[in-house]
Structure formats: C-alpha cells, structure tokens
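Q: Second attempt. The first request was missing the SMILES, so the protein and flavin-adenine dinucleotide are both included now.
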Amino acid sequence: MRTIDVAIVGGGPAGLAVAIHAVRRGFSTVVFDRQALPADKACGEGLAPPGVNELEALGARQYLTPADCAPIVGIRYLQEDGTDVSGRFTPAPGLGIRRTALAAALTRTAREAGVVLQERCGVAKVIRSSERVLLTTAAGEEVEARLLVAADGLASPLRQAQGLDEPVKAQAPRRFGLRQHFRMRPWSEFVEIHLVRGVEAYVTPAGSDRVGVAFLWEHGKVDGSISFPSLLHRFPALRERLEGAPSDSHARGAGPFLRKVRGRSLDRFVLVGDAAGYVDAITGEGLTLALRSASALGHLLPQVLAQGASRDSLRPYERAVARHYWRYALSTRLMLAIARSPALRVRLLHGLSRYPAIFEALVNFVTG
Ligand SMILES: Cc1cc2nc3c(=O)[nH]c(=O)nc-3n(C[C@H](O)[C@H](O)[C@H](O)COP(=O)(O)OP(=O)(O)OC[C@H]3O[C@@H](n4cnc5c(N)ncnc54)[C@H](O)[C@@H]3O)c2cc1C
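A: Got both inputs this time. The predicted holo structure:
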C-alpha cells in the first residue's frame, strides 16, 4: 500500500491549488480525479483581482496566453429598459480565462512542482480514523494518507459520505447555470451582466478571439423548455451581438448551486472549494474563494500535519475560510434577493446609474 502525506480528491482549481501549496512545503501529495485532466466545467470564467493574485502566487499565471485569457477592467450591468452602470476594479484588473486554459495552467504547475496526478481515477471508498485515512480507488488501489482533502466540487460525494452535508430546505430556490463560448473578438473589457426578468446573462471576454456567455436562472421562474438558444432569445441586444459568430464550445450546465455544510473539517479530513459550501454563481466569486481557501490551507499545513491533522488543528483553517465566505455569502444573498424582485432591481439600477461611484465601491466590496 502507498503511504502519502496529503491525498486530494478533485483536480479542479481548488484541489490543484492545495496540491501545489502542499508539495512546495515538502509534503508528498497525490491528486485523484475521475476525469481526464485538465477538465472543462461550466463556469462564467471571470477571475476577480484577488484571484489573479492567487494565480500569480502559485506561479500558474505565466502559462496563460492572450489566446485564452483577457483582462477584465470591471463589471457592467445592463437591464431591459436600457439602463446601464459600470464599476471598475480599483486595485487591478481581473482576468477572463477559458476554463480549460486555467485548468491546464494549474495542472502544469502542479506536475512541475512534483504533485502526482492520478487522472480518470475516482475514489470509491474512504475509511477515516483519528490516526489515518485509507482510500480505495475505483481501480481497487489502496492509499494511506495523513490528511484527505475533499475538493470534489458542488455535489461533493465525500462531504456527503463524511456527514458534513447540511440539507437545503425543500422550498429554497433551485438555481442553475448554462454556458457556451463564441469565436469573436470581445467587444468590451468589462464583464457584462445583462438582466431580464428571471434570467441573468454573464458575458466574459475569455481570450483575444473568444467570448463566453453564461446564463443563470431559477428553476420554475422561466417558462418553456430551457436550452442555450431559448435563454439567448430573451436578450435581443446580446443575440444581435453574437449573430453569425461560430460557437467555440458545447453548451455545458451546472446546478443546483446552493450547498450548505455543517462544518469544513473533521479529524484527518478537510473540505475546500465548492465542496466547502456554495451559495450561487451570481457574483462570480467561486474561483477566488477556492484559490484563497487553498492558500489558507497550504499555509497552515505544516502545523496541521504536525498536530496529527486533528479537527482542532484544522480550526484556524475553518476560521480563515469563514472570513472570506461571510463576505461572499452576504453579497451573493443580497444580489439574489435583488434579482428575484425585478421591480426593485430596475429601480435600484436606475438609482445607481446616477451614482456610479457608489456602484464602483459596491463592485470592489463584493470582489475585494
Ligand atoms: C454557470 C457557472 C458560472 C460561474 N461563474 C464563475 C465566475 O465567473 N467566476 C468565478 O470565480 N466562479 C464562477 N463559478 C464558480 C466556479 O466555477 C467554481 O467555484 C469552481 O469551479 C470551484 O472549483 P472546485 O475545484 O472547487 O470544483 P470543480 O471545479 O467542480 O472540481 C471538482 C473536481 O472533482 C472531481 N471529482 C468529483 N468527485 C470525484 C471523485 N469521487 N473522485 C475523483 N474526483 C472527483 C471532478 O471530476 C472535478 O474535476 C461559476 C459556476 C457556474 C456553475
């Protein structure tokens, strides 16, 4: 049986970032992912300025080329009555990054740092005690680890199996997302968020010749069958912009978004990224949160492992994540409440369009 320091389940941005931090601190680290890496995923692909800093710190930013990423100078909201309001990121620009390119840059950085990547290798069984974690892969291989990091995404089978899932109330809104890319020169350096009743469209420059469009909506609030063309049909100005542009990816969806957790750690076990709780994609903050949490865990790893990776030793990590999460959760819930009330949203954006400095301050609070 193989014995390692850190086993990470999930080779998305959260898992790969933890792996890079861990291996650079001298810990033997293996990432298991059931998919081939780098993996694609439904995402709006906007990385806020603090997320770009995390990417720089990891050393992965250097592997992104202008073909697959583009600077984002801020956020622009546009609504159905023609009102628009923009706010710039004041610290520095963010980045729109094609998800496959982000995954490839992180995968390459991880490999070069010495992380072992086991692709197409799901984890079928976990036996956890206060002494160690024993993993059995879908192929039947057994691995013993000092710490298991669950970075296995929104649905996180490991979070469920370890009893850290907090059930979401049946009456809670169920929100979903669907994205596709188009081959065309981006027309704006802002992430444009087009708003109509019941649906938001996120338009992100994701390369010198690529525009990504992601729709978010609440189940039951949109009539008729849901498909990328049917959602695009609701945004005439956007449809006109995209007219004739060849598609650059297949439509890909995700959801429901809301995932609650009872806690983010147990003895020898810790949750990172979407697995550690998620509210919604409406603020486009998931990647930044995942990279920040990975960095917090990476910095604490030496003391965590020295203290037997007990739940107590992981409490500083829980506190570090909570500090970032509260801001994300607060602004996301606020945005959701506004999006669910179109009359309020229309009035609010009208007001903010007259006071762009306030809007800009809000943009920088949410993404700060
Ligand atoms: C429509 C949409 C738009 C979004 N827009 C933005 C945006 O603009 N900006 C932003 O910052 N965020 C955005 N997000 C959120 C962002 O995509 C997520 O926060 C981010 O992907 C989280 O990364 P992760 O590594 O935690 O999970 P994931 O990227 O989901 O990775 C999880 C990995 O775990 C693997 N896995 C799962 N189970 C197992 C298992 N049993 N064994 C092995 N491997 C397993 C999966 O194969 C996957 O590779 C958006 C999300 C959606 C859905």
